[in-house]
Every structure is written in C-alpha cells, then in structure tokens.
Amino acid sequence: MKLLIVANISKPKVRPALDELLPWIKQRVEVVGVDEDKSLPLADVDADAILVLGGDGTLLSVARRLGGRQTPVMGVNYGRLGFLASFTPAELPTYFDLFVAGKLPTSPRLMLEVCTFGPGNDDLLTASGACKAAKDRTIALNDIVMTAGAPFRMIDLELGIDAHKGVRYSGDGMIVATPSGSTAYNIAAGGPILWPTVDGICITPLCPHSLSFRPIVIGVNSSILITMKRVNPGSALVCDGQTTTNIVIGDRILIRRSDKALQLVENPNLRQLDQLAEKLNWGKNPRYNR
What we know:
The chain is of the alpha+beta class.
C-alpha cells in the first residue's frame, strides 16, 4: 500500500505521535508523503489511502482537497468530538494492519457541490454543466452556511428547491448540511440529526424572522438555489467552517449533490447510536446536590 499521512501538527499531541508512529508505519507500508501544513494537492498524490492525524476539522480539509478522488481516508482523533475521525490514538495499532489490508468498513459520505453565480437567468442553472460558468465553485462534506456578517443586521434570502422558487425570508442566514454535517452547526441551530446512510439534505434557517420557518429535510437529488436579496458588507458563504467567500446582492448560490462521495474508513468498534449518545451526552442522569 502507498500511504499518505496528513498530520495537523498545530495540535500539541500530534507531533510527538507522528515522530513515534512514523518508523512503525514505514515497516508496514510505503509512505509517499507527510503533509504537515495542508499544502499538498491531494488529488494529484499517488496514494492508495490517507491516514489523518488530527480532528474532524483536519479530515474536512482533506475531504475538500481530494476534489472527489475516491481514496479511502482513516481519521485518528486528536481533536475534541471525533465524529468523522472515529479512531482513538490507542486504537490505531490495533486497527492499522486491517486498514492496510482493506478489511475495515468504508462508508461513502455524501458531499455537496456549491456554485456561486452573479445575477442572471435562473433557468440556465438547471443545466447539468451549469457550474462550469460559476464565478466560484467548491465542495463541502459537512455544511454550507450563508451568514449575515458585519454589521450583523438581518439579511434577506430567497430559497428555491428544484422548480419551486420564491420563498423569501429574513434572518441571520441559512445552513445547508449533509448527514455527516447534521451533528455540527446544523444541530446547534436546531436542525435535525440525520443517520449517515440517509439520502437527505438539511436546510436550517438561522434565527429566522418568523416562528413558522422550520428546518426541513429534502431529497438528496434535489437542487437548492438561494438568491441573496439583501446582505451586509460582511455577508459570506462559508464551506465546512473553513473557506469563506464574500457574497453580494444578486448572487445566486446553487447547491446540489456532488457526483463523488468521500470514502470514510469507519471504526468497526463503534455503533452510530452509541456514538451519538456518548458524544452528545444522551441519557445522562441529573447531577444532584449532595
């Protein structure tokens, strides 16, 4: 196996772990590179698999930089929650040889393509190759957020889904999330949790100026078109909490399923329900005064 290691050395425990693990890993596989500063063009690296030493944020960066390439990614969590980077450092020696042998389960995780256009004919956006004419184009594994930004006045958005257009609302913005991202910003904003295998997309308004505008889940093959009707100077489009693009009045944001998924290596020792209960502290008893 040709293995690429992505190590987030900004996390204090990663550098010592990398120094300790690297000789051990090189006895088992061919290491084709170690990316410590998120600079390698991952879509062009000749690797059979990627080992990520970091947290969920590091893995999100890898997912976008892969550009749709179907390389299995195993995440070892040196961060906090670890929904995506599901292996602990202590588990790596146990599971690494299974990973190398291709014997660990792999889950295809839905990714979203987001394309930004200036004002124009919305009908053109329904074409399959519409994003080739976009002024900005990227992919996201977790979520796409339209946020009000400074000076933090309400903004106006118009939401269209497939052929249904013209629903306008005011608020602080909107979140469009995948099942993988449903436990991130989406859940904090009151959106639903989606099972990773559900073919759905969450649309969650941020502080809508209407008590009746609630989060919804739509089919994964639907297209979402959001038109910016009124924005602030600091209004922005944020992908996976990591890339930020300024948005202006008249911009149209087209969001739909990417034709490539992330091949995420899953921890066979974890069950989704148990993971949610553990990470989100479900079912914990009240802390009584003694």
